[in-house]
């Protein structure tokens, strides 16, 4: 039977069998890089990039091209660094279930700030211009879809984990978006007349497609972690 030779200094398996990349100096940097790129590739940052490019370019196409490219390449980079980080650890010793509450909360705060900044930027841009009802309706549909998804995430997390600490992460995002969105509604209310429902629905659908794609990619990558082969730095067969 073949045995595994460890090429990195893993903790003693008798006292610390399961290992996370944060436990290893060599794996820590790629894991943190993966975490950073995952934030950049989040739907919240997608919205922030789209809002910024929308304001700068004043058209519908450029924002989605720029934000979509950011989303794609950031997630590809995150996946690459994630595989590198977990590749230092033999499969049977990977602590894939460790909960990183501090990092998750920090990521939630950063993403919430990015999304809030996007909404604020759009509101300020709308406030100084004669904006067509279609544009406002599209933006309203997008923000509404985001808020509903975040509310659903809070409920699902609460039911699944039954712990306040876990609920805090999605709740941070929800509160930030709800507060900024309500302020935006007060600023823009009555300036454009009744919103076109079909355009608002279109905005929501675009957001849901982006979110669904991101969610499918994220779940797929999480499942792949357990199947990432240990690289030469982690193990070799004798």
From TrEMBL:
It comes from Arthrobacter jiangjiafuii. This is Uncharacterized protein. The chain crosses the membrane at residues 35-54, 60-81, 102-126, 138-159, 171-191, 197-217. It comes from the Bacteria. Keywords: Membrane, Transmembrane, Transmembrane helix.
